[in-house]
Amino acid sequence: MAFYQLNTTQKLPVSVNEIWDFISSPDNLKEITPQHMGFIVTGNTGAGKMYPGMIITYKVSPLFGIKLNWMTEITQVKDLEYFVDEQRIGPYSMWHHQHRIEPIDGGVLMTDIVTYQPPMGFLGAIANSLVIINQLKEIFDYRTVALEKRFGKFL
């Protein structure tokens, strides 16, 4: 079974504190997810910012409007630098997502590293090349636009 990785970066003209406050709050996930995915946070084990061990549950419709339950655990957090979410229940056989931020001249550099394994073995590998990787890129492209709309473009 194959593993895949998607790496994205984005520069934003904000402080580390400002972007950390936004990305480390589960309540903001819906704002940076395409509407057609029907993304809804259905619960989390804490109020406010992420912490190691936090469980977040969602409903999401990645394909054909079919609602799926998704549960992630925040497994690592280093304030103002990074956090990691890992799928516990959901559409992938494995999902590990690193969210990193670092200060740069004029703002911050955000880096996302998503390592994942589709379900269903070789059928999942085919689905990845035909649908999954393109959908993940679309989600991160949407997020880029949503964050620029909220925080401005990096010049």
Query: How large is the share of residues in beta strands?
Result: 35-45%
User: What is the number of strand segments?
Assistant: 7
> Percent of residues in helical segments?
25-40%
> What is the domain total for the residues?
1
Please name the fourth-level CATH homologous superfamily: START domain
Q: Which runs of at least 5 residues are low in confidence (pLDDT < 50)?
A: none
Terminal residue distance = 42 Å
- Average pLDDT figure: 92
Order of helices and strands: EHEEEEEEH
Biggest sheet layout: 7 strands, antiparallel
- If you compute it from the alpha carbons, what radius of gyration comes out, rounded to the nearest whole angstrom? 15 Å
CATH class: Alpha Beta
Number of helices: 2
